[in-house]
Amino acid sequence: MEAHPVIRYSDTDWRPLSIYEDGRMSGLFHDYYALISRKTGLAFQFEPVGDGRDFQYVLDALREKRIDMIDGTGKTPDRAGYALFVGPFLRFPLAVMSRDDATAYSLATLSHKKVAAGRGGTAYEYLQANGRDVDLIPAKDASEAVSLVALGQADAAVENLAVAAYAIRASGLTNVKISGQMDYNFEIYTLVRDDWPQLASILQKAQALVTETERAALMAKWLPVYKDGAVNPEAGAAASVTAGVGPAIAMTDREREYLAGKKALSYCVDPDWPPVERIDENGRYVGIGADFLKLIGERIGVPLVLVPTASWSQSLEAVKKRRCDFLPAAGETKDRRRFLRFTSPYLRFPMVVATRSKAPYIENADSLAGKTLGVVNGYASLDILRAKYPGMQLMEVPSVDEGLKLVADGRLYGYIDTVPAISQALAKGHFSDLKIAGRLEAHLDLAMASRDDEPELASLFQKAVNTLTKEESDAIMKKWLAVTFEQGIDYSLVWKIAAGAACVLFVVAWWNRKLSRLNRALRQANEARDAAARRVAALLDNAGQGFLSVDREGTVDAQYSAECRNIFGRDVAGENVSALLFPDDEAGRAAMAVNVRRVVDEPDAYRRDLYISLMPPKIARGGAQLRLAYRHLAEDRLMLVVTDVTGEARLKDAVARERNRLACVVAAVREQRDFFAVLDDFAAFRREGARLARAAADDRQALDEVYRKVHTFKGLFLQLECAHAARALDALEERLSRLRQDDSPRREDVAGLLGETSVDAALEQDLDVVRQALGREYFDRRGEVCLDGELAGALADLAGRLLARLDEFGLDGDDAAVLDAARTLRCVDLRKLLAAYPRTAQRLAEAHGKQLVPFAVEGDPVLVDPARYTPLAKSLIHIIRNAVDHGLESPAEREAEGKDEAGRLSLSVAAGDGKVRIVMADDGRGADVGAVRARAFELGLVGAEELAAMDDAAVLGLIFRDGFTSRRVAGELSGRGVGLAAVRAEAQRLAGTVFLENDPGRGARFVVEVPLEPRTTPLERA
């Protein structure tokens, strides 16, 4: 859990178990895993996969380890090959759905019938395995399966009971029913990637902690067919859809308190939208929505008060300003989601177009191009139509009647609304010259919409909507929609067809006379085609690439380019392309075979391109590197273009190696002092590290000290472009990190890791590069030291003693000045110890796609003893790296914030009051205090009570704690929780401090203050 605190999961729209909308997930599974999160501390992050409807995409993502788990589905033998099963945590019977006039209640009654089921789902796989005589029709989801049944394209559909009942209710279809149950219980499991058994174990234990009361509350909220809550999965699923039931909903204590405080709920409606809803002459709310609201009000058990308005726009404005609490029948739009919460839809109406009677019937939306159509101002249908038909010319009108009048007067070509609204308006307004001329492929879904600042109300409405039964919906719809429509005959179309038939007869007679000439032309065309094919083949044979095509089984066709023989070393006709490309990789062969079948079988071009994008663009075959490209051909064929890029790959590797070699040599020359200082410090660490680990006060301290040292050396070697040493230290750090996860690490294990020689061998590779470029004498000279270090130290000590006894020896002020200068022989300017950091920051920024304005170390000269201050200077690499990684934004982010695309860093040194002050500043995003609080608590660095008592400055101080990191996954620059703690440790070693000054959105300043060594003399004291 420490290594993987966020678990990535996915699913498709499988209402009400999982509801996928706008890239977000809600529903029963979402609430269940929120409960699991509270019990485990794990965070579950939804990752959209595919189009949100085809479950096969999600299964493929789990198989390929692109997600960590699937929140809920069935258990099948195929899935056992790549997933671990946790559960079951829910169980439902498989239900059979059919039309009112059909009989289908069991698997046996489905024999020789067309049965729809969601592709990739457990119901689909169950029918594949057990319905031998069933004509199985794959559907995208349960909603499409229900539609196929309603339209007569399928005799029945199969889905689990909960999803089936929801799909029928949500569709608004009155001719589909649940007619029976299979002798099979659909058990729902969590699917976990097969290489994470620890996650499966954690989830299994967490599911065992879910109480019956908690499970019942979830089931009652989302599944009205389980009106008394969920039963234990071990007891099976015994539930059925009941008719005429009007139960009071189950409420939480918070919901009861909310209703007790409200006393009554107010609502606004569209005052003139019959038969859906309107306010009649007596001021009463009537219509389809009113009858549904009456049922919902009975479930909730609180008075409902109408707030009258003059128009739908006024109603929207009233609920937005909280003058009423909810809208009983509203379509969901992006704009309305800013101030409303919506239940799942309980009504669905197709949209139709009303035109003048003389206008032709509308076959599809394309025939409306260039024509102006009316839609009521503020209706959700306006947003739906603009999104689905962006080229449609729409004009807003104040009401249905006004829209139809404009059509009758010829000022609008047509008016768009729902079937009930237009049909009733036509009948009431006596528009004898208007008709419903066609239906669009768009629907208006209506739901309860409540104010977004009272989530309890949205929860109550959702529970109430869940209790609405099919029988109740049917009764209301039949009451208000008892209207019969007849399809008119377009006689102009009949005459067109007759004229067309006459033309066809004439063309047939004329064609017979030309048939012989066409046959001759055809032979000539075939000969020309064959010649062209030979020319194309010659071009392909000389293209230097292998061109071949395969069928859905991967069999290579007889025609292929000559380069294929050079690449594969033999004739490849009739061979399997998977075996050709992956002769020694069984998993690669299997994946390629599956992908070829997917691409060839997929009729949808978008999905086909998606599958192609998942196929390998480059592979290693033997000692060769091959680049692959794919093209879908007609007649169920897939073309592969194979290019041998072995030479190109070797050249790129050679260029990269030479670049790294050059960077290492340049760093050794330009940063000579730091180069040798790091080598000396690392050599000392290698000599004394194991001994120091064994001499530590306890095992944990030994591990932390060594871990911090290794992390620091890794950063220093990266700065010096010693890539081999940095990689070896990163591997050592990873092994030490695993030791830190143990409750009781042993110092013997730490010493054992330090005793390994892999890091030394890697460093020798880097040093060999420098030796070859600069010669061995470079290491013998050790830079530009002209005075022995020990001698310089001895002279400095002697100068100090003489300065203390100036009066005894009769020395004057000039002598004192010379002695004071001699005392600083071993000192260096602190700015020189920091001089390499601007170049380091520039390289790090470039490597991570960020821009940085060049800068230099600023401030006055401050002479310090390098033996004392160099460790502190080296530790500042962590502040530089964190500023680049965490502080600076990307160019795009900075531009969006109104900043220059290039970020700014500054590094300054100042002395005063016996202290030296080092300031590292950036103009980035600053620190997120709230995120630091949450992460510190999550990592267990501080308790809740202590954290609550901290002010912002104290919270920011937590970033210097050992083990704190804002990253959940360690990166190359940061994420180990060691760097800033190392800076604090070095500052404290010198009796100093380090702190962060934060300006959110504008940047941050790291300030290090440490005492300067005192150098007072008798003359200075005088």
Question: Summary?
Answer:
The protein is an alpha/beta fold and 1022 residues long. The chain is globular and about 125 Å long.
Cα end-to-end separation: 65 Å
Shape: globular
Number of strands: 35
**Helical content (DSSP H or I, runs of 4+):** 40-55%
Q: What kind of sheet is the major sheet?
A: 8 strands, mixed
Q: What order do the strands of the largest sheet run in, or round the barrel if closed? A: 4-1-5-10-6-9-7-8
Look at the structure and give the mean pLDDT. 81
What do you see in this structure?
This protein is 46% helix and 20% strand. It is α/β, with parallel strands linked by helices and 1022 residues long. Strand 25 (624-633) and strand 26 (637-644) form a beta hairpin. Residues 227-247, 483-498, 783-787, 969-975 and 1015-1022 have low confidence and may be disordered.
